[in-house]
Amino acid sequence: MKREAKVLNIVCIIAALGFVALAVMNALTSPSFLTTDNLFVTMVCMLMALMFAVNPLLYLKDEGRLPIPFQKRKALKEQAAGGTTLPQSAPPLLDAKGRAVPPDVRSMVAHMKQKQP
Questions:
Q1: Looking at the domain assignment, is residue 35 inside a domain?
Q2: Per residue in 7-66, pLDDT tens?
Q3: Minimal CA–CA distance to 18: which of 45, 37, 36, 44?
Q4: Contact indicator for 94, 101 with CB cutoff of 8 Å
Q5: For residue 44, what are the domain limits?
Q6: Which of 19, 56, 72, 113 could form a disulfide with 49 if both were Cys (CB 3.0 to 4.6 A apart)?
Q7: Strand partners, 94
Q8: Is 85 left (phi over 0), alpha (psi -120 to 50) or beta?
Q9: Residue 105 within any structural domain of the chain
Q10: Looking at the 3D structure of the chain, how many domains does it have?
């Protein structure tokens, strides 16, 4: 599985670089770059490059090889605060009518979900 993912990522990187090269070549070879057709071709090439570059970037992020700025600082702040608070990325807890529950109810529900020895 690792080998297949590596081959897929290499193919995606080559395709992304190819589309970026097409966009640069379009910009350099066209006599008037600011026409509708040239801008459309450039944007399509850049969008395709982005689509092919997302897969390798997400793979690197999942493997932990792609450093994400400010992520370590946020994790350190949560550990310094005690780590008992709910993460901000958790989906909101809703009642039966679809309203968000107050923070004290949310903390009680989180306390009840913890395993008791």
A1: yes
A2: 999 999 999 999 999 999 999 998 888 899 999 999 999 999 999 999 999 999 888 888
A3: 45
A4: yes
A5: 2-63
A6: 19
A7: 100
A8: beta
A9: no
A10: 1
